[in-house]
Amino acid sequence: MAHLAQVPSPVGIFPQFFARSSETLVLKEKVLSLTGDDFHIKLANGTPILRVAGKVMSISGRKKVFDEQGNHIFDIVKEHFHIHTTFRVEDAHEKKIMEVKSSFKLMGSKATATFTSQSGKQEILTMRGNWFDTTADITDEAQGNAVVARIDRKLLSGKDIFFGQQTYAVTVAPGVDMALIAALCICLDEKNNEGGS
């Protein structure tokens, strides 16, 4: 994976997850998990970062995100009654901290994440690219469309298909919140799995 340049100012909410250098996250989805879709998010070197537990019977598809010490960081919840698929990310007190809206165009897909950074700045991250195929860039409009993350959905291993898992990599630029980028990717993956608009 290519290295990404440092962003002009930090982007994110959870300082403990800000990338110090260009980091590659590996997301592995357990498609056939009996408890819903569980993701294990690790750095490319194998260091665990986050654990995401899904609820299979939940109408909202609520996913709870924990750090490796078991602390509840945030939830991802699907909102209903929107024209475009919309997810909200809530903190541990169920307060909305980020919204992700997704729409599909003739030439690929587009998703927008809006939130307030730790610095108090309003952020708009836009994912453009072919989510169904292989790669997509996530850019920050407020910082001159700087690339803050790059998704590579090429399957890392053929055995992942056999065991009901999809594995893909996400490179995160220095100064960007890896937990929020992971949340955005999970929202896109949910959207992809359901195949809705």
Automatic annotation (TrEMBL):
It comes from the Eukaryota. Signal peptide: none annotated. Transmembrane segments: none annotated. Belongs to the LOR family. This is DUF567-domain-containing protein.
